[in-house]
Every structure is written in C-alpha cells, then in structure tokens.
Design brief:
This protein is mainly alpha-helical and 304 residues long. It contains 12 helices and 2 strands, in the order ααααβαααααβααα. Strands 1-2 form a two-stranded antiparallel ribbon. The radius of gyration is 20 Å and the shape is globular. 45% of the residues are buried.
C-alpha cells in the first residue's frame, strides 16, 4: 500500500504540471481546450525520440515543452485567425496530432528501458527509490512553474490575459488585442502539458500514442477537487498563488483516490468511469453546499 501511495503522489505531482496548463485555459480563459489530449502525447513522443537518439534527458524535456507550445500555438491560430470556435479548434488539432505523433515516433510506442532519464540520473546519484526520485523532480519543477506563473500573471501582459477571460469586451475596449492574449494563453498552457508529457514519458520509461487519452478529464477533475479542498481552508482561494497550488494538490488527491480504489480491487478497465464519477461529485459538492447554506440562511431569516 505504501509503495502504491508513493507512486500515486509521484504521478499526481508530474500530472499536476499538466493540470496547471489546463488551469490556464479552463479557469483563466474560460476555454475547454481539447488540444491537451494530443499535446500531452506529443510531448511524450518528442521526449522519447530525443532520449533514444542520445540527447540529454533535460534537453529532451525542454524539447517536449517546445513541441507542446507549438501545438497550442496552432490551436490559437485556428481560433483567432480563422475564428473557429476554440473547442472545435482544439478538436481539430488533437485529431491531427494522432498522425503527427505516429510520424514522430515512427510506431505506436517507443520504450526507454535501457536509456538514461532524469529520474535514473538522480537515483544513481543518491541511491533513492524511483518513486522518491520522481517526487523530488516533480516538486522542483512544479514549484518553479507555480512561482513562474505567479510572477507572469502579475505582469501587464499576464493581467491582460486574465482580464480576457473575465471580460473580453472590456479589455478589448482598453486597447488590448485579445487574439494575441488567447494565442499566448493556449501556447503557454500546452507548453506545460507537453512538459508534463515528457516527464511522464521518462518516469514510466516509454511513450505511447495513446498516453494522452483522457488527459483533459484528469485535468478538470484535479482542478475541481483542488478548488473544493481549497474552499475548506481558512481564507479559501482568495489569493492567486493558492489557486495555482490547489491545482497541483487536486492532481495528487485525484491519483491517491485512484490508487486506493485500485488497491481495494477495482477493475482497471473501470478507471474512466471512476474519473467521470469523481468529476461529477466534485462539481456537485459546491452546488449542494451552497444550496444548504441558502436554505439555512432563509430559515434563520424566517424565524427572525
């Protein structure tokens, strides 16, 4: 059980980087970007091919991030230059990436069993178990990204990006080119998704054409879980940094739930159903809680 929990935490942190990418488009830009399922696999495919070719594992991860950024830029270009609805633009990019990823790897999967990765490098240097190495690497990368995003969204262009999601008409009236902010957001989002794909690829020692399937569901589930947990804390999610951290925490909790359920004997084939149920419950809890609070407030008001 302990090994399973450590594995779940390591997976949660590494996938949490992808969740941060989904957070940018879903929560800040109010776009459900379906490019994610494709760009995650693209990041893994590029990383695997680079590692097999003898490229330094760190540079391979940087390449996966760049590949993800390109896919996001394509979606942004389709959505802004040709005014294709963002969700449809994401679907078009995602579908095309299936063929692109096959072209990149030349086959449906690429193993890295005998190749060195950032995790094996850390393990060889410290003697720590693989899961612990994954947690350490994941924490370092996640903290750096959260700090970088917190800084970026405090800048003028970052604030304009957030304002685009809050009130596009208003920010456009102030002279901001919202098409540009949308492209930047989608590019940044999928860069993080590709980075996560590269890390997962090296952690699991292979890249697969279907490794990004359902990534958007995991991202949405983690965001919702993180927000529900965040609201329970004193002060809630009043600060932007707390919202970023809650996304990563939500990812860890999501994978812990999955690990516990699997340990209890659930069929692995039912994990998609479990993911949908987790998302549904997490979405319903705030609504039900708010209704209960309203009824209590109404009852107290009636009594007075």
């Amino acid at each position: 059980m302990l090994t399973a929990m450590l594995g779940a935490v390591s997976q949660g942190i590494l996938w949490g980087i992808m969740v941060l990418g989904v957070f940018i488009t879903y929560k800040l830009l109010d776009i459900a970007d379906l490019t994610v399922d494709g760009s995650f696999a693209t990041g893994g495919a590029v990383c695997a091919v680079c590692v097999v070719a003898g490229v330094n594992p760190v540079l391979a991860i940087a390449a996966s991030m760049l590949a993800g950024a390109i896919t996001g830029a394509v979606t942004g270009f389709l959505a802004t230059a040709f005014e294709i609805p963002a969700i449809l633009a994401g679907i078009l990019t995602q579908i095309s990436l299936w063929s692109v990823n096959l072209r990149i790897m030349g086959k449906s999967n690429t193993p890295l069993l005998t190749n060195e990765t950032v995790f094996t490098q850390l393990g060889n240097a410290t003697g720590l178990p693989a899961n612990v190495c994954a947690i350490i690497v994941g924490l370092i990368v996640a903290v750096a990204i959260v700090a970088g995003l917190y800084w970026f969204f405090g800048t003028e262009i970052g604030s304009a990006l957030r304002a685009t999601g809050d009130n596009e008409a208003m920010i456009r009236a102030l002279g901001v080119n919202t098409n540009t902010t949308k492209v930047i957001a989608l590019t940044l989002s999928n860069a993080l998704v590709g980075l996560s794909g590269g890390l997962i690829c090296q952690q699991q020692k292979y890249a697969d054409i279907g490794m990004g399937t359902g990534a958007i569901v995991i991202g949405l589930a983690a965001i919702v879980i993180g927000e529900v947990l965040g609201r329970m804390l004193p002060g809630g999610l009043s600060k932007f940094a707390h919202r970023l951290i809650s996304a990563v925490v939500g990812s860890i909790v999501y994978f812990l739930i999955r690990a516990i359920v699997l340990q209890l004997g659930m069929d692995a084939n039912d994990m998609k159903l479990l993911s949908a149920i987790i998302v549904a419950i997490a979405l319903c809890v705030p609504v039900v809680t708010e209704r209960v609070q309203r009824r209590r407030a109404y009852s107290k008001g009636g009594e007075q």
